[in-house]
Design goal:
alpha/beta; Rossmann fold; 2 domains; six-stranded parallel β-sheet; four-stranded parallel β-sheet; 11 helices; Asp/Glu_racemase_AS_1
Length: about 260
């Protein structure tokens, strides 16, 4: 039987990680949960994020026994991973900014970390920089607006390039900035638009492909322990609040390989 993998985020950002995992592992069963009633996580209290993550994943696991839970959100990963790993017997995989590969790629050793306001302030981000990027200058932009722009794009709306440039304004004239870390899972969804604003940047790095390889390794090592009791006929996406443009959004989700949108 094919493994069942759940991606969990407060919005649609985790679809960027799902895309990389699905490309590498096309035969898995995929579930996605968008906790849109609590979007964005970067603005919420840590104990609230933990409680919602555990409760929602428990609810989905009861319906569809999970082999892997992917916390496809940097903020939720930093605060909820220990609780989730204690709660569930399946693999729980988190998301962290791709600081190590960015430091290795950069030729000018001037790197930009683009993430949410909560992520750029986290101690673990400082520790990653101290561990892997001591030879680099790492500049940070924390933005909730960019996540909102990505959400709107996934709902079929045009990207507001004026607003995007305003968020990226500190880097527009940074000629030696050659590498940008897309440190929120929403940001790869607007990578092309970000590139338009920052033409001097040679490398845009995210953690999607690394997560895909990690999941492949975990599943290869436990191929005989798949927990799924039945093969799902349709990939499903869950939400925690109704969307105003539900029908339009469902049509977009079909293009991503999801057949059903269900309210939890």
């Amino acid at each position: 039987m094919n493994p069942t993998i759940l991606f969990f985020d407060s919005g649609v950002g985790g679809l960027s990680v799902y895309r990389d995992v699905r490309d590498l592992l096309p035969h898995c069963n995929y579930l996605y949960c968008c906790d849109n009633a609590f979007f964005p996580y970067s603005e919420k209290q840590e104990d609230e994020i933990i409680e919602r993550a555990v409760t929602i994943c428990r609810q989905i696991n009861a319906m569809h026994p999970l082999d892997v839970i992917v916390i496809a959100c940097n903020t939720a990963s930093t605060v909820a991973l220990p609780a989730l790993r204690q709660e569930f017997q399946c693999h729980v995989v988190g998301t962290v900014p791709a600081i190590k590969p960015a430091a290795a790629l950069s030729q000018t050793k001037r790197i930009g970390l683009l993430a949410t306001k909560g992520t750029v302030k986290r101690t673990y981000v400082t520790e990653l920089i101290e561990r892997y990027a001591t030879d680099c200058v790492v500049e940070k932009i924390g933005s909730t607006k960019l996540a909102e722009i990505a959400e709107h794009k996934l709902h079929g709306h045009p990207v507001d390039l004026v607003a995007l440039r305003e968020e990226l304004s500190p880097w527009l004239t940074e000629k030696t900035l050659d590498t940008v870390i897309l440190g929120c899972t929403h940001f790869p969804l607007i990578r092309e638009e970000i590139q338009l604003c920052l033409p001097q940047v040679k490398y845009f790095v995210d953690s999607g492909k690394a997560i895909a390889k990690r999941i492949q390794s975990l599943l290869d090592n436990e191929a005989d322990k798949v927990r799924a009791k039945s093969i799902m006929k349709k990939n499903q996406i869950f939400c925690t609040a109704l969307f105003e443009d539900k029908e339009k959004f469902e049509a977009i989700l079909h293009q991503w390989g999801f057949e059903q949108l269900k309210l939890l």
